[in-house]
Amino acid sequence: MVVKRIAVRVPATTANLGPGFDALGMSLKLYNRIELEEIEKEQLLVEVEGEGAALLPRDDSNLAVRAIASLFRRIGYRPAGLRLRLYNEIPLASGLGSSAAAIAGGLVAANALAGNPLSRQEILDQAVALEGHPDNVAAALLGGVVIVVQDGTFYSCTRLQVPRNVKITAVVPDFRLSTKAAREVLPEFVPLKDAVYNLGRAALLVAALREGNWDLLGVAMQDRLHQPYRCRLVPGLNDIFAIARKEGAYGAALSGAGPTVIAFSPPECEVGEAIRGAFLARGIEARVLNLEPELEGTHLIC
Ligand SMILES: Nc1ncnc2c1ncn2[C@@H]1O[C@H](COP(=O)(O)OP(=O)(O)O)[C@@H](O)[C@H]1O
Ligand SMILES: N[C@@H](CCOP(=O)(O)O)C(=O)O
Hints:
Structural class: alpha+beta
Radius of gyration: 19 Å
Oligomer: single chain
Number of domains: 2
Strand content: 25-35%
Bound molecules: adenosine-5'-diphosphate, ligand LJ64HWYM
């Protein structure tokens, strides 16, 4: 018998946006739905539909289950049994924040099931501890664009609303790249001139996003801190950025840790097909997703 049932909608995210490595994240209108039921029988049932259905574990090693269990541990809540249903639209290990969504969605659902004992800030702290970096979990939880500052274990988030009059295209190549692997290729130190290169662009990007001044994105989305190192993991990445600009995109970047490429463009621009063609030319199938900025973040739907 079902004791209580919660359903949550959690958005995808695109982190970094070019120069904002580990500092900027934006939520997108592409969602996973998480349904969590407390049941009388002492067991854990996990069902998965959509993205990752063939891959994701159905036991307590599942990331959403781990997030739920960590929240219950923290507040001392002991349900008899749990049934978790995951309806996934966010591609796995593709740079669109699937792990952040599993964590944010799991935590918000668990908190609601337990009667909402934790504040949004406490949930965010726990999400950051589980994910390891705040940019995409903060965007998934809060919605909009988040600017994150951090120093060791300290971090804080500032949220921006983003004008919606821009087309956002994600081109998702048909291979997975774990964020862990894509972080391992990054150097421990970067040249001062590269840090300076990114500083100005990240500041310009925030101004551009705030004002909807999309023409600035061509310069504002350039990066020298992570993409030059990650480009060997994503065949043709530099050519793809050039193709996106030639097709009329305002700017393009690796989404999160990749391999998805995200492009911002005027509504009539068909940049997605051009990027897909560039992947295909290298023997890689890819999907084009037409998306929009999302402003609500993770929320209960019943
Ligand atoms: N809906 C989901 N439910 C449970 N775990 C998930 C889900 N989506 C992703 N994960 C976990 O997150 C991993 C991918 O995380 P990561 O490498 O950070 O890529 P991404 O860029 O998609 O966040 C998956 O291999 C899986 O372990
Ligand atoms: N700043 C992180 C963002 C990872 O995002 P994901 O969506 O790929 O998990 C990084 O660039 O490593």
